[in-house]
Design brief:
The protein has two domains: about 180 residues, Penicillin-binding protein 2a (Domain 2) (Alpha-Beta Complex); about 350 residues, 3-Layer(aba) Sandwich (Beta-lactamase), CATH 3.40.710. It has 21 helices and 20 strands. A hairpin with a 2-residue loop joins β13 and β14. α13 runs parallel beside α15 and α14 packs parallel to α19. The longest helix has about 30 residues.
C-alpha cells in the first residue's frame, strides 16, 4: 500500500521551490526595473545626449578699458566610442586629413578614457572642414560636433603677462574634477593666475538625438538644462600703448622693462625681450608653434626675463644700501667718505671712476661712487658700538634688504615669479667658515655684485618704495575683477620697509642730480623732474649689462621703472635713453625726440 503522506511532502517541497524561484525573479525584476536605473539610463542614452555646456572665458581689458583678449567660436569633433555603428573609417579619415593609423590611435585613446563618455577626437576644425563634415555627420554615428570658445588677441604685445591656455592633461583632471578631456586651462601669465575666475562654471544640456545620432533639439524644452555661468572679466593694470611702445624699443635686444605705478603697485608694463605673438599659441598649429618657441635656444622667447631672470643689480643696489646705512645709524647727511679712484683692501683694490671727493649721501648717489659704499658697508659690519660681531651686523643689514623687497617673492599674481638671491649669514659660514669672514670678504655686495642677484620687478619695486618714501604695495597685474571700478582689494595692504621718511630725501636728491647732470643724465626728460640711477652689472666673460632705475615726476611720482639691457655695456648707453623715452611717452602721451626714438628702435645688440 502506497504511503500518501510521502507524496504530500514531495508536493509541498516542489511548490515551495516554485514559489521561491518566482519570488527571486520578482525581486530581481523589481530591483532592475525600479531600484536600479542603470538599464533605464542605458535606454535613455540612446535617445538623450548629456552635453557639458562650457562657459565662455572672461575677457581681459587693459587699465584704460581697451580689449586685450576676447573669445571666438571653435568647433571640436567629439566621439562616444560605445555609440559607433557601421563606421566608414576611410571616408572620415579623408575628411579629417588623417590616416587610419592616426584614427585608431585617437579612438583607442578615447576608449581608454571612457567607452560611454564623450571624448575629444579632433580639435579646432578649420571652417571648410567643419562645413563639409556637418553635412555628412549623420553617416558617422557616435561622433558629433561640439562648439567651444578659444582665445583671440587684440595686440601682439604682453604675451608673457597675458599668458596662454592649453588642453588639460590627466594630472589637471586628477587635481580638479571640474576638468574633463578636451577642456582648456590657463598655463601661464594672467590666464594661469586667474584660472578659477576666468573659467566660469559649467552647465549641462540634455539633447534629443535620433537613431543616427543627429541632434533633434532640447529635451522637454530645456527644463532640465543647467545654464553655464560665464567667466568674470578682468581689467589688467597694463597700459596697452606703453606696453607696445616698450616692446618696440626693446626689439633687437635682450632684457626687460618693468614699470609700476608707485601709489598702487599696479604694473603699467612688463616687457620681456625677445617675446612672441600670443596668437601663435591659438588654433590648430598651436602645438607646432609652441615647440618651435620652446626649442629656440638662442632667443628663448618663452622665458619671462622680467620675473624669472636674475641679474647682479650693480650700482642700482647702492640706493638700498644708502637707505640701510642711514637707518642703522652708520652714516648721516653730513658723513663724508673720500675716494682715490677706488677702495683699497689688503693687496687688492675695487676701482672707481673720476668724480669729486669726498662725498655725502646724495653725492654718492649722484656720482655712483664705489668707494663710498665699500666704506659704508665696512663701517656697518665692523661697528662694535652697535653690533657685537660681524655676523650680527650682517644679519641686521640682511633684514633691511629683505624688507626692501629683495631675496623673496611678492606672491601676488605674477606667474612663476622667482625670489632672487640675497645670501644669508649661514651661507657665508659655509663658504668661509664660522667666524672666519669679515666685511672685506664680501665687499662686492656693497655695490650690487658678488653673490647678489635681483629680478627686474624687484628693482622696479625698489624705486617705487623710494618714490613713496618708505612703503609699497605688492606689484600686481590685475587691478579689477568683473567690473572696471571694482578694485582688486587683494593687493591693497601697504607694506612698510622700516626706514625713516627723512632718509629718503638724501637719496632722492642724489637721484635727481644724477638725472640732471650725473651718471644718469641720458634718462632726463625736458620739462619733467626725473630721479634716476644707472647700473653697470659685470657679466664675465661677456659684456656688462646696462641697467637703470628711475621714477617721475619727483614731486608727484606716477611711474617707477627698471630697465635691463643684457650685454648693453654702461647703464647710460642703452637703459637710460630707453627709460627717458618711456617716461616721455607715459607722462606726455607722445614723444617729440624722434631722433633718439629712432636710434633706440633701430639699435641692435649682436649676441653671437
Amino acid at each position: 500500500m502506497i504511503d500518501k503522506s510521502i507524496y504530500s511532502k514531495r508536493k509541498g517541497w516542489i511548490l515551495f521551490i516554485f514559489v521561491f524561484v518566482a519570488v527571486v525573479y520578482i525581486v530581481r525584476l523589481f530591483s532592475l526595473q525600479v531600484l536600479d536605473d542603470k538599464w533605464k539610463k542605458g535606454a535613455q542614452n540612446n535617445a538623450f545626449r548629456h552635453v557639458a555646456d562650457i562657459p565662455p572665458r572672461g575677457l581681459i581689458f587693459d587699465r584704460n578699458g581697451e580689449k586685450l583678449v576676447d573669445n571666438e567660436i571653435s568647433y571640436d569633433l567629439m566621439v562616444v566610442p560605445r555609440n559607433i555603428r557601421f563606421l566608414d573609417t576611410l571616408e572620415l579619415c579623408n575628411i579629417l586629413n588623417i590616416d587610419t593609423a592616426e584614427f585608431n590611435k585617437r579612438l583607442n585613446r578615447a576608449k581608454r578614457y571612457s567607452n560611454n563618455v564623450p571624448s575629444l577626437f579632433a580639435k579646432r576644425l578649420p571652417p571648410q572642414m567643419y562645413a563639409f563634415l556637418t553635412e555628412r555627420l549623420y553617416r558617422f554615428k557616435g561622433f558629433y560636433i561640439y562648439p567651444r570658445t578659444v582665445r583671440t588677441y587684440y595686440t601682439q604685445a604682453a604675451a608673457h603677462s597675458l599668458g596662454y591656455i592649453a588642453e588639460v592633461n590627466y594630472k589637471d583632471m586628477d587635481e580638479d574634477a571640474y576638468y574633463t578631456v578636451g577642456d582648456y586651462i590657463g598655463r601661464s601669465g594672467i590666464e594661469r593666475s586667474y584660472e578659477n575666475v576666468l573659467r566660469g562654471e559649467k552647465g549641462q544640456r540634455i539633447v534629443l538625438v535620433d537613431n543616427l545620432g543627429r541632434e533633434k533639439g532640447s529635451y522637454d524644452n530645456g527644463t532640465y538644462d543647467i545654464a553655464a555661468i560665464p567667466g568674470k572679466n578682468l581689467w589688467a593694470s597694463i597700459d596697452k600703448n606703453l606696453q607696445e611702445y616698450g616692446e618696440l624699443l626693446m626689439q633687437g635686444k635682450r632684457g626687460s622693462i618693468v614699470a609700476i605705478e608707485p601709489s598702487t603697485g599696479e604694473i603699467l608694463c612688463l616687457v620681456t625681450s625677445p617675446s612672441y605673438d600670443p596668437s601663435l599659441l591659438v588654433g590648430s598649429e598651436r602645438g607646432n608653434n609652441y615647440m618651435k618657441l620652446h626649442h629656440d635656444s638662442i632667443n628663448k622667447p618663452l622665458f619671462n626675463r622680467a620675473l624669472n631672470a636674475m641679474y647682479p643689480p650693480g650700482s642700482t643696489f647702492k640706493l638700498a644700501n644708502a637707505l640701510v646705512f642711514q637707518q642703522s645709524g652708520i652714516v648721516n647727511e653730513h658723513t663724508l667718505y673720500s675716494c682715490q679712484m677706488g677702495f683699497a683692501y689688503g693687496n687688492r683694490k675695487l676701482g672707481c671712476h673720476a668724480h669729486p671727493s669726498p662725498l655725502n649721501v646724495s653725492g654718492s648717489v649722484q656720482h655712483s661712487c664705489n668707494a663710498w659704499y665699500c666704506r659704508g658697508f665696512k663701517s656697518m659690519l665692523e661697528n662694535r658700538k652697535y653690533y657685537r660681531t660681524t655676523r650680527e651686523a650682517y644679519e641686521d643689514w640682511y633684514r633691511y634688504i629683505l624688507k626692501l623687497g629683495f631675496g623673496q617673492k611678492f606672491d601676488t599674481d605674477l606667474s612663476y615669479e622667482i625670489a632672487g638671491i640675497i645670501p644669508s649669514a649661514d651661507y657665508y659660514d659655509k663658504v668661509y667658515g664660522k667666524n672666519r669672514w669679515q666685511s672685506t670678504s664680501i665687499i662686492s655686495i656693497s655695490i650690487g655684485q658678488g653673490e647678489i642677484c635681483a629680478t627686474p620687478v624687484q628693482l622696479a619695486n625698489l624705486v617705487a618704495i623710494i618714490a613713496n618714501k618708505g612703503y609699497y604695495y605688492p606689484p600686481h597685474l590685475i587691478r579689477a575683477i568683473n567690473h572696471r571700478d571694482s578694485l582688486n582689494d587683494r593687493f591693497t595692504e601697504r607694506k612698510s620697509v622700516g626706514i625713516n621718511l627723512e632718509y629718503f630725501d638724501n637719496v632722492i636728491e642724489g637721484m635727481e642730480r644724477a638725472a640732471s647732470g650725473g651718471t644718469a643724465r641720458r634718462a632726463s626728460v625736458p620739462g619733467i623732474r626725473v630721479a634716476a640711477k644707472t647700473g653697470t652689472a659685470e657679466n664675465p666673460p661677456k659684456k656688462d649689462h646696462s641697467l637703470l632705475v628711475c621714477f617721475a615726476p619727483v614731486d608727484n611720482p606716477k611711474i617707477a621703472i627698471s630697465i635691463i639691457v643684457e650685454n648693453g655695456g654702461f647703464g647710460a648707453t642703452w637703459a637710460a635713453p630707453i627709460a627717458s623715452l618711456m617716461l616721455e611717452r607715459y607722462l606726455n602721451d607722445t614723444v617729440v625726440r624722434t631722433d633718439l626714438e629712432a636710434q633706440m628702435i633701430e639699435g641692435k645688440i649682436h649676441y653671437w
